[in-house]
Amino acid sequence: MIGLLYLFLVGVSSLEAGIKALGADFQVGLLERVDHPLAGLFAGVLATVLVQSSSVSTATIVGLVGAGTLSVDAAVPMIMGANIGTTVTSTLASMGHVRRGDEFRRAFAAATVHDIFNVMAVIVFLPIQLKTEFLSRSAEMIADLLGGSSVRGGKPNSPIKQMVKEPVAWAKHAFESITDSDQLIGFLLIAFGLVLIFGALAVITKNMRLLIAERIELAMNSLISRGGGLPGMAAGLVMTVAVQSSSITTSILVPMVGAGVLTLRNAFPVTLGANVGTTVTALLASLAVDLRAGLVVALTHTLFNFFGILAIYPVPAIRRIPIRLAEGLAERAAKNYLLVGAYTVGVFMLVPMIGILLFG
Amino acid sequence: MVFSFFRRGDTDGLEVAEGKLIQMLADDRHSFDVATSALLTGADTSIVGPDLRASDARVNKAERELRQALVVHASVHGTSRTASILVYMSVVKDVERIGDYAKNIYDVAAQGVDLSTAPDRDQLIQYRDRISSMISEASTIFTDDDRERAARFISEADALLDEFDGHVSELITAEEPGREAVPRALLFRYYKRIVAHLMNLLSAVVMPLDRLDYFDEDRVRP
């Protein structure tokens, strides 16, 4: 497992090195496309939907920030978009229940409550962030406490960063023996990095799921008998940190809610815990990048999810909003399956693509 | 709940399911014993009744918990455990039905039927004792996954079914009045169904999934 984590960090470092190798012109060009916050938001959604993993997309964003290509302010909306994009997996998982109306209605509600919560959190916190930089400045303060130096320009020399740079240097040397073009070397390093990130996370996720399956079962049975609430949230967080994937946690909840053994109200806090738990991947990725800004973005991701819970969960009347909306949507979707397709394609593909075209 | 995540133990859903099934069979045996005691040994139905209802409640609760455990197991493990999950979903119904037939036997006693002084009482009690021990034996065979013993059990149980059918046929053509023949016919019918459900349970040990509750001669010949 440690070896796989190391490979993951090498992948992030390679991604960072590849982007730097592409040169300033490319980096400026990329930045222009996502400069508008809504373009960044929708780019985050679309990228995450395409890779089916917020861990991969947020690690990539951290790599971009770490390379100095993306500013923290430009990255934050993309991180928020990644939160929304990752919920497509559980939405797709709910469609396995489509043959049985009641089952599908429950399963679809379990999947979409996650989408709705994330959209609500973006509606609340994106304007706040744009106006006050509340999330990123809070993340900076925490990064300063952890690292003891200014984060905007800091280039700490952590031992982990030193350890992951070596294989990247070898890869770069190997690519330099193939071509003289800096751009091509940059693309090769990016591809190499993405393969490592994808591959390492996939194997980590698969292995950890097998290793801790019994413990997940125990936690889920406990959740059913004792209810959700804060313990459910903590269970969702711990499970997601362990398997490094919020999609696995939520895709376990969907069939359980679909079968009726777990209520939506008890599954909801587990989903929120998974939202926070998945931010660990970006925090790990920040260990491998040059700039402390990478850590700030990762911490922003954590804080966004944490404050999202604080804003929506504690007050019962507000907490009920995503649940009621999900139940209402599922009720209609169970009667008209066209709505399911329209929702899925619309929210996760069409709207982000149109958004990028309009604002990018 | 968070601490349960860090705890070790027998938490595999299939092990939980098996445990619940064994617990249900123990309660079924108890239900059968007390129900037949009301009919065959003159036990007070006002005492037997509440005991039986409590036992039935335990069986129903265990069945719900077993199904719940299977849903969780399927959700966590995906399709890799489908066959085992389907087996348990099938056999739990057979085990639950044994308890129902025990209640049916009690219902006959509750109607005022008392066979404790009947001339064929000893024969009925012999059958009772045999079935009671078969419930326990089936539980052990299922847990041990013992194919040979399961095949022998099914073969012997099949012969017992024929005996019960024979007794019912005799009663159909007998000259005894209805109040003598009907309770006996019902009792043999319930005995037969209980044994049949035990055979279904053990068919899961010897038969493939798609042929549960069917008995391939080649597979069940001891």
Mean pLDDT of chain A: 88
Helix content estimate of chain B? over 70%
Number of strands of chain B: 0
H-E order of chain B = HHHHHHHH
Q: So what's the CATH class of chain B?
A: Mainly Alpha
Tell me which oligomeric state these chains represent.
heterodimer
Radius of gyration of chain A: 20 Å
Arithmetic mean pLDDT of chain B: 91
Beta-strand content bin of chain B: under 5%
Using a beta-carbon cutoff below 8 angstroms, give the protein chain pair with the largest interface and the number of residues from each chain: A-B, 27 and 21 residues
**CATH H level of chain B: which superfamily?**
Phosphate transport system protein phou homolog 2, domain 2
Q: Identify the overall geometry of chain B.
A: globular
Residue share in helix of chain A: over 70%
Report what the structure shows.
The complex is a heterodimer of chains A (360) and B (222). Chain A has 360 residues and is an all-alpha fold. Helices cover 83% and strands 0% of the residues of chain A. In chain A, helix 3 (37-51) packs across helix 4 (54-66), helix 4 runs antiparallel to helix 5 (72-85) and helix 7 (101-132) crosses helix 14 (264-277). Chain A starts with a helix and ends with a helix. With 222 residues, chain B is mainly alpha-helical. Chain B has a single domain (10-220), classed as Phosphate transport system protein phou homolog 2, domain 2 (Methane Monooxygenase Hydroxylase, Chain G, domain 1, Up-down Bundle). Chain B has helices spanning 2-6, 13-40, 45-77, 82-110, 121-144, 147-173, 178-206, 217-220. Chain B starts with a helix and ends with a helix. Chain A binds chain B through residues 212-224, 226, 231-232, 234-235, 238-239, 252-256, 259, 261, and chain B through 1-2, 4-7, 9, 11-13, 16, 67-69, 71-77.
